Amino acid sequence: MAAPDMELKQAFSELQSKVVDSKQKIKLHDLQIENMKRSITHATLTDTEIGQLPQGTKVYESAGRMFLLSDIKAVRSGLDKKSEGYKEKIHILNGNKEYLEKQIKEQENNLRELITTKKNAA
Fold this sequence. Notes:
2 helices; 8% strand
């Protein structure tokens, strides 16, 4: 049996490390997306509950470790801004995930090409 080609062996180990790293990043992106979706849901529920209150009701908005007296309109606009920010971040994270998945497929295709050229050369 012939000794394994060092170039192929190195390419396989490089591919394996890149795939593991990319899959970890993808899982991290998935967790972040789920957290942001939960926050959007929370903001939406809070907005609907605040929307049912009468206009003159005192509403408090959290700011760090304290609460500030605010009007309903300001709290609702803050919740809308927060939701929009989360939606933009989710869009960016999905784009990063797609890029990582394409990168993995590209590395696998490059390795396949290397293998076929080695087979044809032998």
